[in-house]
Amino acid sequence: MAKAVIQYFSGGYWNFRYGNCYTINDNKQMLASAGSSKGLELILNVEPEEYVSISHTIGLRIVIHNPMDNADPEGNGINIFPGYETDISLSQTIIRRLPAPYKDKCVSYADNAFQQSQTQCMQHCIQEYNYKQCGCVEPSLPSKLNVKRCTVKNTTELCCLDAVINNLAIHGVDCNCPFPCLTTYYNERLTMAKWPSKCLLP
């Protein structure tokens, strides 16, 4: 991988489902022009020999998001398969809403240190349900509660968390998480081809 790309990786974090995660372009570098030859190009090694025994797939999960938002690999993301070249073309959609007294009643999550997006607000709300019912919170979700995190080896706690999610899926949630006043969406279009070709093999 080129040094020019490595410097744009920021500190990693661990995700309960997808393992090690890293952010590219956290310092918000800008492209001067658009086009297939002007974007980011990476060659990545998935290192399958480093996977733990419980891993059931091999590959990568890529999340393309607004630099001001936190990545949400569970809610959004693209699975990238080893042995293929994947091209991702993007189009951006920006939605601007109005706060109260207008009917949108949007809020600016950027002003909240604990809830920097509507997704995080919903996650914190679900964690409150988890703690109320199970006495602990989901270890893979952020929480502003300074309480015990459920143990993945404790089947009673895990079953309780599953029951909470199932109940919320059926009956809905009562969370005060209005729409953000500014939302940026990226619409992705993927094309794939087998990689590498014979001419690139040693």
Automatic annotation (TrEMBL):
Annotated compartments: Membrane
Gene3D superfamilies reported in the protein's UniProt record: Acid-sensing ion channels like domains
Membrane topology, from the record: Multi-pass membrane protein
UniProt protein name: Degenerin mec-10
Pfam families: ASC (PF00858)
Taxonomic source organism: Caerostris darwini
GO molecular function: ligand-gated sodium channel activity
Family the UniProt entry places it in: Belongs to the amiloride-sensitive sodium channel (TC 1.A.6) family.
One cellular component (GO) term of this entry: plasma membrane
Taxonomy, superkingdom: Eukaryota
